[in-house]
Records
---
Amino acid sequence: MKFLPFFLAVALFAGADDTFVLRGVTVHPVTGPDVENASLLVVDGKIAEIGDARLKTPKTTKTIDAKGLHVYPGMIDSNTEVGMSEISSVRETSDVSELGDFKPQLRAGIAVNPASEHIPVIRANGIVAAMAVPDGGILAGQASLMRLDGWTWEEMAIRLDAAMHLRFPTVSTASFGPSGFSRASFSEARRNYEARLKNLSEYFERARRYQKAKAAAGAGFKPDLALEAMLPVLAKKVPVMISATRERAIKDAVAWGEKEGVRIVLAQVRRPGSALALLKEKNIPVILGPTQELPLEEDDPYDEAFTVPVEVHKAGVKFAFGSFGNQFSRNLPYQAATAVAFGLPHEEALKSVTLYPAQIWGVDDRMGSIEKGKSADIILTDGDPLEVKTNVKRMFIQGREVDLESKHTKLYKKYLARP
Amino acid sequence: MLRYFCRLLCAAALSLSGGIAETPAVIAIRNARIVTVSGPVIAKGTVVVRNGLIEAVGENAAPPADAWIIDGAGLTVYPGLIDAMNTLGLSDSGPMTAATGGGRRGGGPPPTTSSGPPAPPARGPEDRPLNTSYLLAADQISPSDRRIEAARNAGFTSAVTFPNRNIFSGQGAVINLAGERAGNMVVHSPTGMLLTMRSAGFSGGFPASLMGVIAYIRQIYLDAAQYKTAKEIYAAHPVGNRRPDYDKHLEGVLAAPRILLPAGNPKEIERMLRFGQELQQDTILYGLAEGYRAAGTLKRHNAKALIDLRWPEKSRDTDPEQIDSLRSLEMRDKAPSTAAELKKAGVPFAFYAGALTQPSDTSKAVKKAIDAGLPAADALRALTLSPAEIFGVADRLGSIDKGKIANLIVTDGELFQDRTKIRYVLVDGVKYEPAPEPSASPSESTR
């Protein structure tokens, strides 16, 4: 019974459900000034025209009266495990990491489960795309930018090789082994770090030799999937995403990137200190972790985590937000919102979950703002999407309307009806 | 003539074994400043030592005719120092720490006391895990422990030594820090039982957590009380009664005259004091890193305390990016003031150097306590008469009084001052001269 109206709709607008016009809306293009009482024409899943109430459209174009609603570009989460891990403590549902230190050939996108219960939950707050990031080892594999709609991973993939995830070695004195938590001396940790760094450099050297061998196309050349995957990295077509939280790790990572001649994006930046100037100078973008966190150190001010984004913004470093997990991805807009309450300009916060991630992951020609020619990955809201009380009323991904039902809404309805 | 020859031979034999100086049976130190600890300082007097005991002390004590005379002009005589908690002589013991945090911090597998297949993990208190309460430190002393000489060179003539590998590790003993055989060294045994809060750790069986350790200790004392009653009833009425099973794990618990419990911060101090009361045991707390915050509590409970002379400090070779919390900075700054605070509050306390890697660091550590407000005389007392009182051997050790054991140190200045050197150490009336310290301090040598 429930499917009947859907079939009717398909029959009536056969092949044209990604063509429509929204009327009476306020458009927030992010790249330019807001347009009130606007009409937004979407043709074949792409934004065709932004006009006023008088915008003329063909008679056959479906009109959606969305009077009073706001149109924003859908949000992008720049670091998740979405679709790769359903319940992290249940081994069978977790497909995040592979064994071994160097496995650049792995593509996270193909491990994304399109039927994950997390996806509708995340979408409900206006997120249309997310980076699926593999983990484990040193070169964990390729992080893939996935749109949060589709029957298969192929339909979901926006860019399978959006970044190469490098778990950069750190000088870590703390470790957890079979005999519990232990602390090594700094010099020991430093030696360990240098050994791992050496392995990493050797791997990049191997990749460069492979590159030369391939170019020479000699008789003995043997194709290798792993080293093949390194070629776009060496050619600076794919950035290396490096987790680096504190000043020393950031400086080490930047110096390494310079040495290897690769493009880098830093993730989980939290205490950059004087390295901020370096990031600005080298034009290196960063992915900030959750803002709603406890302070890093016992004696830090309570707002230590809340003020990281504004510090990064003031330094002129480009940044985006990531949720670094799966189920809390839905809080992405509120992570940006907390930063606004602690000094980050509102428009910057909005860009950090829309335009900036699109630029960082090299897809700003397709998404990240509401501009002519871009994919219609948009949300209709009754207010500012960074505001907790705002509801996302409708969502379109590539111009197709997406169901906003989720496990949460189902549970909400179920318990609302409880006698 | 023959007798003289004999004596020469004996002396030669003695000096061969471990570099002991030729020591006559009677020694008199005269014209020295004498710090008796039990009474006023004698500005210029004589101490006579005969057969390992103090025969006379005073301004007017006359050196006997047969005495070997040491001219004490410019020298000071102190009672030998007592380390209130150590593992000296017990080669199978770890360092003395006062970590009360539970979980796996204790770590390390329990020592195997017998060969053969390993025992299955303990399931509960009935398996008596981590319990070697029946071990006597006095039986385990190894006079060849190299740490003994190092401690003696630092001025220690006695130590209260405890096995510390288990929760119920065994019975401590007061030992003198010199002797050919273990039997020469033991002054008093058993002296008490050191309780540690270590757990069996991952898959080591019960108890695997701090709450398990506490519950286990409780159960052991309940079992011990019941065991004692059963034994008494059986002793009175052996006929017609079934004999109670012999349990060596409880025998040791019953034999201990007192227990030592670890406590660092005020909460731990309060809890451990209550715990000791609940167990109905004469309780001594050890550790006391944050004792400066709990002097009032300790006084209210009439507590006795052993203060760890290894003051908390930043560990070497740490990550320079690591930020120390204000809390730990404060603790490092204030820990040495614990002794002064306890003195003000009137809480009996002694120092223990057992956790220091080098006995020669003692002087520096004590200096810190003095700089933090402890009168020098009280610092000395905390390493002499106070530990003797706390462990019930003040009739034999801890001060320079007639009839006490002749454990003395002779210095060329005020003890615990940088430039002061220890000239002689007398243990049981036998004189030792500390070897001059090597210029570069080999801090790793005792590991």
---
Amino acid sequence: MNTPQDSTALHRERIWSELAKVARPDSRFHWDFSSFIADFEGSDECARRIRSLDSYQLGGTVFITPDNSTEALRAQTIAEGRPILMTTYGIARGFLALDSGTVQAGQEFYAATLDGMDRYARPVTLAHISAGGPLHLLVTGGSAVSINGVRFGKGHGFFDLEWAMLSEIGVVDARTEIVCVVHDCQVVDEALSGEDHDVPVDWIITPNRSIHVDSPGRRLGRVRWEMLEGSPLAEVPPLRELKVGVQAL
Amino acid sequence: MHRLSVVSETGGGPPKRRLSRLGTGVPLYREVYDSLEELVMSVPLGDEAPLAPESQLMATFGVSRGTLRRALDELVRQDLLRVEPGRGTFVVQSTKVRWLVWDRLVEVARPDSRFDMDVSHFVPDFEGRERCDAQVQALPDYAQAEIVFIAPDNSLEALRLDALRKGKRVVVPTFGLRRGLVVLDGARMDTADMPLAATLDGMERFAAVLTLDDLRRLDPVGVVLTGAVAVTRQGLHFGGGDGYFDLEWALLRHCGLASPTTAVVAVVHSCQLLDVDVRPGPHDAVADLIVTPEGAVTPVTALPKPDGLRWEEFRSGTGYSTAYISDLLSETASTKLATVPRPTGARR
């Protein structure tokens, strides 16, 4: 019998070999899909599809993970002058806020890269994020996603942790939508059961399909401190902030 | 992280200390490992004497041969120690240099978009680097060059941008040379695209990876700019550990893009400039000029640089087991060009 971990690993491996045909290498990690979420042919089409979602049309800040596959969406969001909230790679330096108004015309694609983000975005505390009000839309890439919205990342649980932190400070709720941007080859056409801490998504957006997941059964997250014990991840700025208590601004 | 601590030495020998087996929960070999590391790191750089014999180290640390060997093996695996059968155990100076400098460098480094402050994975930009840029811009070799080689180090991103804005062509390897090299043409690029093109994330959007034949068709570069983990006052360059820069230099020579007189300029923070005498190996592409925020240093003795590819001197495996490099490998193996010095300025 396959444990959830086994089947996750199996799907990841199989999909990574398919993905290699349409993916773009990372500037640092080359083709090592265990270290980054790859961009792929058609990710700009995903960005256009996201533009038509109600949760995007609501306006306000969009949270976008620092994946290569969500870069086209960041460029589009910047071009539209919308604020972006993101994390640094591996959450190492916590959250960054990008005021798209500070990006000069013609520099949207630069600002949308991870190298460029460092130029244009500024670090923000959970206190600042909390003061900024609710988020309607969170967008993440993935290694794979099942048709019922169970998402696999690189295997480090970064997005689960981001969801947990945003939940803890009360800027996401039951109305918040989560979108997963993937290539068609990353969609697993069967219903998989997630684990307790998984964060199922509302929408699967590929270059060719917009798949709505009916009642993904997502709960608000909480930081599971016991899982972080001894991990360098426990020392990232937002978790240190959360540990001592986020101050109201 | 590696600690930079000085062990108090008594009588010139290794420190006398007995390790505690109890109460720490740390495996004994691990304590020996830490103590050996401290010992090795506290000896001045350039001191190439072998470690004390095993029997003496066993007595010093009060441990069995098995425990000592386990610690030694681990340090060999970390590449800090090297065993030469019949001669003894030696410190790998290049690893020691890296460990020493990494500890200082994190204090002045600017984070990478992926590796953050883990400077063992990349050559970081650093505080005060802007003062290096101005010095490089004033160099005639740079100012007059139509084509320049600039390593894919974060500390050189601003100079890549500067070169593009001045209409130069910039030859830049992909990170770790994994996908070969590209050439960015500042004369044919929209000014608005240049900031992105100067980054590692952006460069491949504006240029295709060059084949070896493409490389040979380029004009020689006017100057070679590189960052480093460390550089000695003699110009010996220490990169991230896999010899990428040495390989890049060898490649430039192999393809006729650099001559023995092409200047290699290393741009580093002052904490990366070492006042020690470490002998270069045959594949070391030594710097002709070292630029720091506090000023430039010209190495007193000009050391010769390798004239082409000598594969046996590069470590196999790791980063450059790519199609690009295997092409190169088969080419140099079949033609023996690798070891044949070519006349200065020879073109094909």
